[in-house]
């Protein structure tokens, strides 16, 4: 992946569908060459949860927040949320992408 | 294609089967099914065994021939393990159905098994999370309670479902399993207890989640035309459907609907020429309380968004419009993952034979619904008391 502060998605230039990488071909039309696009990195909380009972490899991190974020481009992504204040997360809260690491996508709220 | 019937069922109790191995419990359930069918084990022409995570939890694979040899089945037959996460058992069932329907075999043993209680909760959570896409969602630390919590939050937002509605599913299913000797939990619980229980994945609490369990269940299938020769109450399989859904939450158009459940139910009703109104009893995949709400809508018993309200109105209780999970369901009977799909068949067969401890009056047609992973796999069976 390119610059970790930019959120990259894939775009099918044949049928116009956006995909979250990795995607090995366009699942809608079958086109094999998907183009990387830099997104705005902004979106809203579509739904969310806080994990208290974690898998073994995540148990040191509990509790942690996971959400489905709907990007302004209309595509959804599963991401970890970093809360910038104590206000509880709500559906429709605005969020901004800030990094991608071995866990995946991170958004600030 | 010819008709297929269930002529034998067997099971262990679901729960903590201390000191009993996976091989032992699977052997017991299969042997019970063979005895119930009244056939010789040498008559069995194929064996399908559903299991999800024996490799991860126990370091034990190749379990179909292992269990077959433990039973002393003939050596010249195919013994195959199938896997589809929490749907593994019902997939095994359907493979047996297909083999007989096609005319390639007359007697097939199908079973499901899981041994979970000898592993820690963290190890189980990790093993179960292996059904998530590890290239995408799995690496975020999402869990299955977390996946259903994401659905719950959205369901509440879109339809006004309340946390109390989910709690009432747990209360109902705990009440149902009081009389079920195969159930892990046999005590009444109250809404207050459910609401006060420990948080697992907000808003789901311990009492919203099915418990880690051990268990095995099995069935013997044969052509309908000869079923009466073996059991006085054969049960016909009117439809056995398997479908596929999305692998990740973020790729679902609307995660409050699991599309594999919708398509499996539609196909099963089409094949059987029945509709949801014709079903007398349902065992569906309530791995979490919200799952029962969503499933009851996806299967066509209630309009989307009304499943929680239906529980509150008592429509899914015994004696209600459509009794759901009279066994206690996964929440209270238990969810030994690979065994669950056939455990559901066991419960519905008992209902249709009129022999269930928590009997739905005059039950003639039943439906089982088994769901795997993020709704990636689904099976629906429609079963009917043979005329």
Index terms:
heterodimer; A: 109 residues; mainly beta; OB fold (Dihydrolipoamide Acetyltransferase, E2P); 5-stranded mixed β-barrel; 3-stranded antiparallel β-sheet; 44% strand; globular; B: 387 residues; alpha/beta; Peroxisomal Thiolase, Chain A, domain 1; 9-stranded mixed β-sheet; two-stranded antiparallel sheet; 14 helices; 11 strands; 36% helix
Task: Give the structure's gist in a few sentences.
The complex is a heterodimer of chains A (109) and B (387). Chain A is mainly β. Chain A contains no helices and 8 strands.
Chain-wise SSE layout:
The complex is a heterodimer of chains A (109) and B (387).
Chain A: E1 8-11, E2 18-19, E3 35-38, E4 42-51, E5 64-71, E6 76-82, E7 94-101, E8 104-108
Parallel strand pairs in A: 6-8
Antiparallel strand pairs in A: 1-2, 1-3, 4-5, 4-7, 5-6, 7-8
Chain B: E1 4-11, H1 22-37, E2 46-50, H2 54-58, H3 63-71, E3 79-82, H4 88-101, E4 108-114, H5 121-129, H6 144-159, H7 163-176, H8 191-196, E5 199-201, E6 204-205, E7 215-223, H9 224-227, E8 235-244, H10 259-272, E9 281-283, H11 289-298, H12 307-312, H13 329-332, H14 340-353, E10 365-372, E11 377-385
Parallel strand pairs in B: 2-3, 2-4, 9-10
Antiparallel strand pairs in B: 1-7, 1-8, 4-7, 5-6, 8-11, 10-11
Helix pairs in contact in B: 1-3, 4-14, 7-11
Return the CATH topology of the largest domain in chain B: Peroxisomal Thiolase, Chain A, domain 1
Helix content of chain B: 25-40%
By helix and strand content of chain B, what is the structural category? alpha/beta
Q: How would a crystallographer describe the biggest sheet of chain A?
A: 5 strands, mixed, barrel
